[in-house]
Amino acid sequence: MFIDASAIVAIINEEPGSDEIVRRIEDHKGQRFVSPLVRFEVVAAVARSRSGATRPTSEQCETAEKTVDAFCASIGAKDITITPSVGAKALMAARTYGKMVGHEADLNFGDCFAYACARAYNARLVYKGNDFLKTDMA
């Protein structure tokens, strides 16, 4: 199982629907994966969500990073290495489903890499939202 940033942000920020995401993660008996890109995206999103109308401070970013690290450790998530093969799969996702080609899935940079990581490890993709529903990962 590869866990997209959207799923982790939803859980940490206790967004509507996060209970279902937690259940899917807990019910999965195999390996759970994240990537450095996912961690970066989640730290940025969590820090922004906790900073109000201002930019997050260095301390808020550090606190968010510790929160993300603790969450990933609590679910036993293993970090995936971003290899040239993963990069090639991300480019394929962008060409097929990306914003840059106007596909209705509208995958952004992070989405394309989440797609690629899940493909590279033949893993189910856990996410929040509808973007991936319009791909072959649904």
Automatic annotation (TrEMBL):
EC numbers, comma separated: 3.1.-.-
InterPro entries per UniProt: PIN-like_dom_sf, PIN_dom, VapC_family
Keywords: Hydrolase, Magnesium, Metal-binding, Nuclease, Plasmid, Toxin, Toxin-antitoxin system
Role description: Toxic component of a toxin-antitoxin (TA) system. An RNase.
Source organism of the structure: Roseobacter denitrificans (strain ATCC 33942 / OCh 114) (Erythrobacter sp. (strain OCh 114))
PIN domain ranges (all copies): 1-136
Annotated positions binding Mg(2+): 4, 111
CDD domains: PIN_MtVapC28-VapC30-like
Family statement: Belongs to the PINc/VapC protein family.
Gene name of the encoded protein: vapC
MF annotations from Gene Ontology: hydrolase activity; magnesium ion binding; RNA nuclease activity; toxin activity
Cofactor(s) needed by this chain: Mg(2+)
Annotated protein name in UniProt: Ribonuclease VapC
Pfam families: PIN
Species lineage: Bacteria, Pseudomonadati, Pseudomonadota, Alphaproteobacteria, Rhodobacterales
